[in-house]
Structure prediction request, 124 residues.
Amino acid sequence: GAGRSKHPLRVPGMRPGEQCFICKGTDHAAKNCPEKSYWDKNKICLLCRERGHSMKNCPDKGDGDLKKFCYNCGESGHSLSKCPKPIENGGTNFASCFVCKQQGHLSKDCPENTHGIYPKGWLL
Prediction:
């Protein structure tokens, strides 16, 4: 009715201003991305750097905690979520970017990346 303020349409699973991390679209969350199935087949494992699986499902995982690497403190044996040290700079001080090859951020946050999770498109 009259007097109501207008709010932008909400996208389920997203906060206002957020983008799909796969394609950078603003009208859907990653779980509903039209490019999700292709992304699932071509994602790059952060543990072994191979395509087609996530770190959670990595065949090289083996001993679990022994292979974990913390992007926050740079130590192995635990992940960022289990780091005993205070999180600094978003917890990516020791992360390596696939786009610009610099340390300190992930490709999704790279200032040179304008294409979402696959900075050079699907055909790297």
